[in-house]
Structure formats: structure tokens, C-alpha cells
Design goal:
The complex is a heterodimer.
Chain A lengths: L2 E5 L2 E4 L5 E8 L5 E7 L5 E9 L2 E4 L6 E6 L2 E6 L8 E8 L10 E2 L3 E5 L1
Parallel strand pairs in A: 2-11
Antiparallel strand pairs in A: 1-3, 3-8, 4-5, 4-9, 5-6, 7-8, 9-10, 9-11
Chain B lengths: L2 E3 L4 E5 L4 E3 L2 E3 L4 E8 L5 E7 L5 E3 L5 E5 L4 E6 L8 E9 L7 E2 L3 E6 L1
Parallel strand pairs in B: 2-12
Antiparallel strand pairs in B: 1-4, 3-9, 5-6, 5-10, 7-8, 8-9, 10-11, 10-12
The chains are: A mainly beta, B mainly beta.
Chain lengths: 115, 114
């Protein structure tokens, strides 16, 4: 079976500090990977999307970047955090291609508070 | 372009009563439709999907949804609500001919009263 992990679960960081959030998927290969941000417990904002190693699509201009150094690893980073970066960050994966089940599977999320 | 609307921010229902959470969508082609549930401080969990075939789809925890092409709707239903169903529910749509990026609604908070 497949499992998705995110860490850390919670993070409190001062403004201007760097950020690194990690997401890993087990039990599948070549997944489509997604980073979302959820503000105020409501709508999801897609941040980044990846179909393979080193292939990252950015959906909105922002203070964040993403990398996919390995097939099942997706990292969200920032060099200098802003107050507006606070939120709940969700990683998700989807099985691509002919074996796709179409839906996404989400990780447990990281609660980021920038102070 | 694709979009999805969840017209109700909050739905209140008494335990044991039927519940409906509304969703309407817009796509240029044919849709893939999804419902997800989110409990506090947790990730989203997949509930059910419409890909093709029967318009009535059944999912986890006794939930079902009906795809209505003429009304462009995909409402989530359950015959008898439980207090434990209280959560945030998200509808999502993806155009079959489009990218692999779904569009999510803003979410509907379901509150089931004992």
C-alpha cells in the first residue's frame, strides 16, 4: 500500500528565517506530486506541481520554491519567510498514467506559523 | 477553464437526518469529479469520485453523490447523518481533456448536531 509522509507536523519560525518542508511517498513510483497551502482552514491554493524528478511547475509567484531531488521526495523551501507564509501546507500525490485512479492522496500537513 | 462552486459555507443538520452538501462545476469538456473530507488539523481524505458510468456513485462512510450533467452538479449526500460526520468537505473538478491539476471548491463546513 502507499503512504505519504510530511514533516515537521508543526513549525514556528521567525520572519526572515529559511524554511524546508519535506514530503515523501512510499509504495509507488513516478507519482505526480503537489504542494498546496490552506489559509484559515478553508480553500486550497496550489503552489507547485511535479510530474518527475527535477520537473517543477509553479502556479503562483511567491516567496517559496520547490524541488524534487528524488522520485518520491518533494521539498518546499524559502530563503526568507514572510508573515504571509503562515498556513497549513499539504502535500499530495496522484498515480499517473494508465494505472491512475484519478484522485489525489494527501499527507497529514504541516502547520507553519511565522512570527 | 474549469471551476467549482460550493454555495454554502456551512450546513447544519440533526443527527439521523439526511444531509446534502452542494457542488456545481464548470468545465469546457467532460468532468472528473471528486469529494474529499478534512477533519481539523488533518490532510484531506478522498471520499468518492465520478469518472464515467453510473451517475450515482457510492463512497466511504456511507456517502454518495449524484452526477447531474444537465445541472452541472455533483451534490454529496448521506441518508442518515452522524455527529462524527462533522468536518470540512471539498468538491473538486478536473477537465478530462485538461491538465492533471484539479480545481477545488472553497469547502463546506458540515455540522451535525446531536
Amino acid at each position: 500500500s502507499q503512504t505519504i509522509h510530511q514533516w515537521p507536523a508543526t513549525l514556528v519560525q521567525p520572519v526572515g528565517s529559511p524554511l524546508s518542508l519535506e514530503c515523501t511517498v512510499e509504495g509507488t513510483s513516478n507519482p505526480n506530486l503537489y504542494w498546496y497551502r490552506q489559509a484559515a482552514g478553508r480553500g486550497l491554493q496550489l503552489l507547485f506541481y511535479s510530474v518527475g524528478i527535477g520537473q517543477i511547475s509553479s502556479e503562483v509567484p511567491q516567496n517559496l520554491s520547490a524541488s524534487r531531488p528524488q522520485d518520491r521526495q518533494f521539498i518546499l523551501s524559502s530563503k526568507k519567510l514572510l508573515l504571509s507564509d503562515s498556513g497549513f501546507y499539504l502535500c499530495a500525490w496522484r498515480r499517473p498514467g494508465a494505472t491512475s485512479s484519478y484522485e489525489q492522496y494527501f499527507g497529514p500537513g504541516t502547520r507553519l506559523t511565522v512570527t | 477553464a474549469q471551476s467549482v462552486a460550493q454555495p454554502e459555507d456551512q450546513v447544519n443538520v440533526a443527527e439521523g437526518n439526511p444531509l446534502t452538501v452542494k457542488c456545481t462545476y464548470s468545465v469546457s469538456g467532460n468532468p472528473y469529479l471528486f469529494w474529499y473530507v478534512q477533519y481539523p488539523n488533518r490532510g484531506l481524505q478522498f471520499l468518492l469520485k465520478y469518472i464515467t458510468g453510473d451517475n450515482l456513485v457510492k463512497g466511504s462512510y456511507g456517502f454518495e453523490a449524484e452526477f447531474n450533467k444537465s445541472q452541472t452538479s455533483f451534490h454529496l449526500k448521506k441518508p442518515s447523518a452522524l455527529v462524527s460526520d462533522s468536518a470540512l468537505y471539498f468538491c473538486a473538478v478536473r477537465d478530462r481533456g485538461g491538465s492533471y491539476i484539479p480545481t477545488f471548491g472553497r469547502g463546506t463546513s458540515l455540522i451535525v448536531h446531536p
